[in-house]
């Protein structure tokens, strides 16, 4: 199964460097990043601009299964 990043990155027109699992992935713009497929569900952890590029730190989404079938968050009572 493959996953895609949050689709708001599609609006970025600058070059993008993504840090994921201690590796750097390079994209010409946000559209390329939005079409890239990841092995795990990911979320954007941090975004910063430096030297005409956007740097995005991507984290594994640990909460991918933390919802019920109707979309509510799981609640622990004890």
Question: Mind sketching the topology for me?
Answer:
Layout: E1 16-20, E2 23-27, H1 30-35, E3 42-50, E4 53-60
Parallel strand pairs: 1-4
Antiparallel strand pairs: 1-2, 3-4
Helix content: under 10%
Segments where pLDDT lies below 50 for 5+ residues?
none
Integer-rounded radius of gyration: 15 Å
Order of neighbouring strands in the sheet with most strands: 2-1-4-3
Distance between the termini: 34 Å
Number of beta strands: 4
Q: Which overall shape is indicated by the principal axes computed on the Cα atoms? A: globular
Q: Structural class given helices, strands, pairing?
A: mainly beta
Question: Treating each run of at least 4 consecutive H or I residues as one helix, how many helices?
Answer: 1
Integer average pLDDT: 86
From N to C, what is the helix and strand string? EEHEE
Residues in β-strands, percent: 25-35%
Largest sheet: 4 strands, mixed
Describe the structure.
This protein is mainly beta. 8% of the residues lie in helices and 35% in strands. It is built from one helix and four strands, in the order ββαββ. A four-stranded mixed beta sheet has the order 2-1-4-3. The N and C termini lie far apart (34 Å).
């Amino acid at each position: 199964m493959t996953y895609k990043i949050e689709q708001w990155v599609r609006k970025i027109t600058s070059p993008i460097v993504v840090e994921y699992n201690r590796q750097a992935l390079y994209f010409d713009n946000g559209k390329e990043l939005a079409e890239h497929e990841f092995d795990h569900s990911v979320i954007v952890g941090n975004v910063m601009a430096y030297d005409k590029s956007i740097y995005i730190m991507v984290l594994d989404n640990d909460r991918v299964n933390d919802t019920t079938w109707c979309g509510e968050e799981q609640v622990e009572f004890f």
